[in-house]
Design goal:
heterotetramer; A alpha+beta (about 90); B alpha+beta (about 575); C alpha/beta (about 240); A: about 90 residues; alpha+beta; Mth169, Chain: A; 3-stranded antiparallel sheet; 3 strands; about 30% helix; elongated; C: about 240 residues; alpha/beta; Rossmann fold; 9-stranded mixed sheet; two-stranded antiparallel ribbon; 5 helices; 11 strands; about 20% helix; globular; binds adenosine-5'-diphosphate
Chain lengths: ~90, ~575, ~240, ~90
């Protein structure tokens, strides 16, 4: 079976996010005064073949833990979807 | 775009060109053939408006091993060493997507030098933007600088010099010229040629996608707001793959069997294959089904015209293919035999067994008509000449004037730019950015190579002939300042539309001025690039020839650096 | 003579520079080692040079850390052989967990190349014995992700164990704000593991080994390693 | 009212994704043979003050269009949440 896993990698709360702060500053400079805080993360889409949803989920979790996120800086969240026409 | 226009017109060909194509073919072209012509006969690939004028440049000298006509020029350094160098522009792509536009400029010029058999040893860049108090211009500047750094840094080639100027003339059409300098032993120099019927044609590096289809045509039009809509999918550079391709191709050179190599630049496979066949005076047969692809359902012409980056075309002696493919596999790259050299002078494109195009190589590569449009001195010059400088009041406070000058973005330090480029990698940079020319040491000798890129659009606007000559002279002075003797130049001619008599006049004048200065200084032109149609909403940029000069220092230990060194030293002003 | 292995990953680009310094300036037995190698037993010391392994895609060093050769690096590090990571090599060592912390994007978000000064924090290490305590070295940096980060507990531990070897400083050795080129916590430019045989640093010492290139200050790192390896000096942190 | 907008920025389908390809290659080399394709994108979290959900949504959309995504290469999707303890 074919699945799509969406992995969201975000910075840990206590880690400084210079890029997020830069975007925040830029948005305010553009006039969006309501913006209070911006955090930047990564969004990774994985298409994979696996025997079952449970297997796909656990494989994707493992990939996220081992490679996609650096535990010193980041946390992650994996959402599994069926790979539809969404390639 | 109206759909009632014939395809040739939609593709940017003129009627006389279409008729010449029919005449060369003896029949009406198919869509595939027409699309290939449209790219090969675009200004960007065919130099229709510039060829006759460029012939006026001095290109010979005892130091010149390779003049214009190949991927890059070559000068002799003695001790069996050769210096390979070339400049290229990516103005329009950078105006649309500054980071990727500039990154792919660097990738392309690196591959031009690599295709010559050389190891790139330095990069330089010449940039023009509108005034930096505008957010859009700052966005372009920071994107371009980051993009150049992204590609060059990752490849491990130091960016050792360049120039940046700001002027409203470039607000709608920034300039991004990139220069690469490489080093080879004389006998290692390769040519971009296909020869020997039966020899094989390979495409190596990345897979082919739909990106950048029509890029050459895009570069041959003025920019406007509408450019947004009809631009091709932007090409994304992959310096990581570029680096692997560089290593793999050098490994291939070592094992031998390489007849010729060319980068897949503007015009993609079509341009690379046809130009190689044309140089060798041979024909070629390509099967698009053999080209490794990134996307499904690509039409033959899409494969032939894609400008996907990080690809090169290799002509290889038959029987060497297994070894070549093994090398590229080892580096994780694609390598596929896509065709064969023939002896009939025909460029034949097949999709499996089906022939989709058959065109005489010479017509496609060299058959575009040359134009010598009207040239007329622009009116603004008369007004400018009538200006009486005496009417300017004497400044009350020269200190204030000095402060104003120093605060100008055009005079301020460029450290913000060059600190984003790795300029130390390879351990060759004896004098880096921040001074006059950069100076690189030549391993295994006492010698050094000086490199510099210079141009001044404002001077050229005021007097294109003098302005271009001044740019050559300035580059030469910079090279001399680090203790080297100027050897040769490459150049990038950035102008507006050649179909405007005023622009064409500027172009002709600038080339004349450059030729004069090169003759006077004994620095022949070994190649270059022409970028026309640098306009926004009908307004041309300043005429901006960019000069890339190389020089040789006999003893790199005895170089000079700018800056006063010790109290008590004597200060001398040379020249009038 | 000591035997050095210089690891090469796809995208590494400073391997030749390090090789040149070790072989031609310092006359050592040094060779390049491809990332697929599984045995590093034959080397006294292994260097992970700078560059952009795997294009620095995802995070600098993240992909290289999974190369087959890294298993062998764990092995020899365990055995007390010397391991030095320069720039991208430092990033790989932190990703691999051989050194604590992580190297984040530079605080100002730009790639930065230029001369920096670093202060030598300790000289009782196999990598710095050639220097004087507190000596300030002039060495270039060139990186986009060199901003050292560790959570507060880890950082405290790093300091407690004296694992900081180099800190960005001004030419007088002071830790001023402007001397820190990338926002690194505690001005950290180079650290070692607790055992003292694995070190990583962001500056490029191989670029500062010849006067004609602007400085010879980086040479001491390699000289110290050679000294340690050839004189068989025993070494302990704590 | 305070909202959190999550902006997902992905590369256009026809745009080359060198980073995604490198990650894909790395995952396969790590033994995840089932991985067919990887695409990398950005995940941006914005906290903002706005008079109504509709206003927050339209502000976030506008920020995404003008700054967060580069329309030449990327597309985006905005999801609005109430800003809870989620920070
Ligand atoms: N301004 C110029 N001065 C001298 N030679 C030039 C100039 N512009 C282009 N040429 C030469 O014309 C030839 C074709 O240019 P090239 O840049 O290789 O085309 P393309 O960019 O389409 O590959 C090259 O040999 C180049 O050196």
């Amino acid at each position: 079976m074919r699945f799509k896993a969406e992995v969201r990698v975000t910075l840990r709360r206590d880690v400084l996010d210079p890029q997020g702060s830069a975007v925040e500053g830029a948005l305010r400079a553009m006039g969006y005064d309501g913006v209070k805080r911006v955090r930047m993360g990564k969004w990774i889409e994985l298409w994979l073949e696996a025997p079952s949803p449970a297997d796909a989920q656990s494989q994707a979790e493992e990939m996220a833990r081992r490679l996609l996120a650096n535990p010193v800086l980041e946390t992650y969240q994996v959402t599994l979807k069926e790979a539809g026409d969404d390639r | 775009m109206s759909t009632s226009l014939p395809l040739w017109a939609v593709l940017g060909l003129r009627q006389e060109e279409y008729l010449k194509i029919c005449e060369d073919l003896g029949s009406e072209p198919s869509e595939t053939v027409l699309r290939m012509y449209a790219v090969m006969w675009s200004e960007h690939c065919a130099y229709k408006h510039s060829k006759p004028v460029l012939r006026r440049l001095p290109t010979k000298g005892p130091q010149v091993l390779q003049g214009p006509g190949e991927n890059a020029g070559v000068v002799d350094l003695g001790d069996g060493l050769a210096l390979v160098f070339k400049i290229e522009s990516h103005n329009h792509p950078s105006a649309i997507e500054p980071f990727q536009g500039a990154a792919t400029a660097v990738g392309g010029i690196l591959r031009d030098v690599i295709a010559m058999g050389a190891r790139p040893v330095a990069l330089l860049d010449s940039l023009r933007f509108g005034w930096p108090d505008d957010a859009r211009q700052r966005y372009l500047l920071s994107g371009v600088v980051a993009g150049i750094g992204h590609y060059g840094n990752s490849m491990g080639i130091p960016t050792v010099g360049g120039e940046v100027y700001f002027d409203p003339a470039y607000s709608g059409n920034c300039l991004v010229n990139s220069m690469c300098v490489g080093l080879a032993r004389r006998e290692e120099i390769q040519r971009a040629i296909a020869q020997g019927p039966g020899n094989l044609i390979l495409v190596v590096g990345a897979r082919t996608g739909r990106d950048g289809i029509g890029g050459a045509a895009f570069a041959s039009q003025e920019l406007s707001e509408a450019s947004e809509a009809d631009r091709p999918a932007v090409q994304v550079g992959d310096p990581f793959m570029g680096k692997l391709l560089m290593e793999a191709i050098h490994e291939l050179y070592k094992v031998g069997g390489v007849v010729g190599v060319q980068d897949c630049g503007a015009g993609g496979l079509t341009s690379a294959c046809v130009e190689m066949a044309n140089r060798g005076g041979v024909g070629m047969e390509i099967d698009v089904l053999q080209v490794p692809r990134r996307e499904e359902g690509m039409l033959p012409w899409e494969v032939m015209l894609s400008e996907s980056q990080e690809r090169m075309v290799v002509c290889l002696e038959r029987g060497r293919e297994a070894e070549a493919i093994r090398i590229f596999r080892k580096w994780g790259l694609e390598a596929a035999v896509i065709g064969v050299v023939t002896d009939d002078g025909v460029f034949r494109v097949k999709e499996g067994a089906r022939v989709v195009a058959e065109v005489p190589v010479r017509s496609l590569a060299d058959g575009a008509p040359e134009y010598m449009p009207d040239a007329r001195e622009p009116d603004y010059l008369r007004l400018l000449r009538a200006f009486d400088f005496a009417c300017l009041p004497e400044p009350e406070d020269y200190g204030d004037v000095l402060r104003k000058l120093l605060a100008s973005p055009n005079i301020a330090s460029r450290q913000w730019v060059y600190s984003q480029y790795d300029h130390h990698v390879r351990l060759g940079t004896v004098v880096g950015p921040g001074g006059d020319a950069a100076l690189l040491r030549l391993p295994g000798t006492k010698k050094g190579v000086a490199v510099k890129i210079d141009g001044n659009g404002r001077y050229c606007y005021l007097n294109p002939r003098r302005g271009a000559a001044i740019a050559v002279a300035e580059a030469a002075r910079n090279v001399v300042c680090v203790g080297a003797k100027p050897q040769a130049i490459t150049n990038n001619l950035n102008f507006g539309s050649p179909e405007k008599p005023e622009v064409y006049w500027q172009f002709v004048e600038a080339v004349e001025g450059m030729a004069e200065a090169c003759r006077a200084l004994g620095t022949p032109v070994t190649g270059g690039n022409v970028s026309f149609y640098n306009e926004f909403e009908g307004r041309p940029i300043y005429p901006t020839p960019t000069i890339g000069m190389v020089g040789v220092s006999p003893d790199v230990e005895r170089h000079v650096q700018p800056g006063f060194k010790r109290p008590g030293d004597v200060i001398v002003l040379l020249g009038q | 003579m000591a035997k050095f292995g210089i690891l090469v990953f796809p995208g590494t680009n400073c391997e030749i520079d390090v090789l040149r310094v070790l072989r031609y300036l310092l006359h050592q037995d040094a060779e390049l080692v491809w990332h697929t190698e599984q045995d590093l037993e034959r080397y006294d010391a292994v260097i992970l040079p700078g560059g952009f392994s795997y294009g620095d895609y995802l995070r600098a060093g993240a992909i290289a850390r999974w190369a087959p050769v890294i298993e062998a690096v764990y092995d020899i590090a365990e055995k007390g052989r010397l391991v030095l990571g320069i720039c991208n090599g430092f990033q790989i060592l932190t990703e691999a967990g051989l050194l604590p912390g992580a190297l984040q994007r530079n605080r100002h978000l730009r790639y930065v190349c230029g001369w920096t000064h670093v202060r030598v924090e300790r000289i009782d290490t196999p990598f710095t014995s050639a220097y004087r305590e507190g000596q300030v070295l002039r060495i270039p940096i060139s990186h986009g992700e060199g901003n050292f980060y560790a959570d507060p507990d880890t950082l405290a531990e790093i300091e407690k164990w004296g694992q900081v070897v180099l800190r960005y400083a001004n030419p007088d050795g002071q830790l001023t704000e402007t001397a820190n080129p990338n926002g690194s916590l505690h001005h950290i430019a180079g650290i070692m593991n607790k055992a003292g045989n694995v070190m990583g640093l962001m500056p490029h010492p191989e670029r500062a080994c010849e006067a004609i290139l602007g400085s010879e200050d980086g040479c001491g790192i390699f000289a110290s390693m050679i000294h340690y390896l050839t004189r068989g000096r025993v070494f302990h942190v704590d």
